[in-house]
Amino acid sequence: MAVHEAVLGRFFEDYVVGDVYQHPIGRTISEADNTWITLLSMNTNQNHFNAHLAAQNPITDGKVIVNSGLTVAVVLGISVLDMSQNAISNLAFTDIKMSNPVYVGDTIYAESICTGLRRSESRPYAGIVSMITRGLNQEGTEVISWKRSVMVATRDSGIGRNYFPEATNGPLRLPSSDTEGAQS
Fold first, then answer.
1. Residue 117: left (phi > 0), alpha (psi -120 to 50), or beta?
2. How far apart, in whole angstroms, are the C-alpha atoms of residue 52 and residue 38?
3. Where are the alpha helices (H) located in the chain, listed in sequence order?
4. Which helix (H) or strand (E) holds 116?
5. CA-to-CA distance for 28 and 68, rounded, in angstroms?
């Protein structure tokens, strides 16, 4: 019997410059998502929540447009599993480009390419991973892109590992056939 340690994401040593990471989770944007982030962030542009006013917008064909802050947050979140699950710190976001609008009902996917790697000079337990990330809608149209750098823990640092608690009642085991009625 093997126990698979509770580990998510990649460590610094796992990245390769030029590798593309197609992030496995997509996210469909709902009207509630768009309205909530718009209200929470105090964004008063009615193109995000007033369908009557948005009907006048020639850029969006009269549709309510998803708040770009939500687009950034969703694409960033989608990329975490592969690119920054074991990050210690975000270091830089640059060159954010909103290439096409996002609408309620669009499903967003993301992919990243590793553009640079270097060991941290001041923190021997980490390295710097640079990347370009882009978000795509369900039709494959790019909706957003940026450059980003994060400080990621090394595998031997212990950061992001060995955090799962030991069960006070012992390890999880298969039930015995005489006590639990094992089925074939």
1. beta
2. 17
3. 31-40, 51-54, 68-83, 177-180
4. strand 107-119
5. 15
For residues 86 and 80, give the distance between their C-alpha atoms in angstroms, rounded to a whole number.
9
Rounded to 5 degrees, φ, ψ at 134 are -135, 150
Which tens digit of pLDDT belongs to each residue from 27-48?
999 999 999 999 999 999 999 9
Please choose, from the candidates 168, 139, 146, 119, the residue with its C-alpha nearest in 3D space to the C-alpha of residue 12: 119
Q: Say how far apart CA 75 and CA 107 lie, in whole Å.
A: 11
Token pair recorded at residue 50: 């007033």
**pLDDT digits 0-9 by tens, 76-131:** 999 999 999 999 999 999 999 999 999 999 999 999 999 999 999 999 999 999 99
* pTM to 2 decimal places: 0.87
In angstroms, the CA 64 to CA 164 distance is 44
